[in-house]
Amino acid sequence: MELDDVLLNPQHVTRQARWIDAPPEVVWEELHAVRLSGLPVTVVLGAARFLPVLLSGSGLGQLRDRPFLDCLPVPLLASDEPRSLVFGGALQAWRLTGGEKAPELDAEGLRNWMRPRWVKAAMDFRLTPSRGGTELSSETRVLSTDYETRRKFDRYWLLVRPGSTAIRWEVLTAVQLRAEARDRAA
Q1: What is the CATH number of the domain that holds 126?
Q2: Is 11 left (phi over 0), alpha (psi -120 to 50) or beta?
């Protein structure tokens, strides 16, 4: 599955990529092994964003250390080991407490869904054999479902995009360090 199968014509896109001196199978395993405790920037930025949810009394169970991929704000839609992971869903991220409960949507449902007052978000991690190693890339796409939501999300994205990008770079770097160390040790 490709991001185009989930979300076309996004209003916001970020992309990051890093070459890793290890085979895709090792990179895949290490991507799944990265935990929140190994991502200090992610923990700090996540805590800042998550604070209103915690103060409202919900979300306490989500603070324990978990694999990064289990903590994404949208669910896994497709996994093609060791090539790609695609996540996607509807969000109201600009709302301090996270907004309404998101509908459960598969890839086709998300692609066709346009209920007002939501954004559709999709993200992938791609592993591509390259120069004797692996290029690990991530792309995030966001599409607002109506004009008013777009205005609200645009303001929110202006504030959070640098942090979102920093989180992705931190994850790619953590995977690189783990995969290359493991591959050297083998």
Answers
A1: 3.30.530
A2: alpha
Identify the CA nearest to 153 among candidates 105, 120, 123: 120
Q: Which domain holds residue 92?
A: 3-185
3-state secondary structure of 39: coil
pLDDT, tens digit (0-9, with 9 covering 90-100), for 103-140: 999 999 999 999 999 999 999 999 999 999 999 999 99
155: enclosing H helix or E strand: helix 147-185
Count Cβ atoms below 10 Å from residue 61 Cβ, excluding itself: 6
- Reported in sequence order, the residue ranges of 21-83 that DSSP labels E, i.e. its strands, are 76-80
CA 148 to CA 54: how far, in whole Å? 27
How many domains would you assign to the chain? 1
Alpha-carbon gap, residue 55 to 59, rounded angstroms: 9
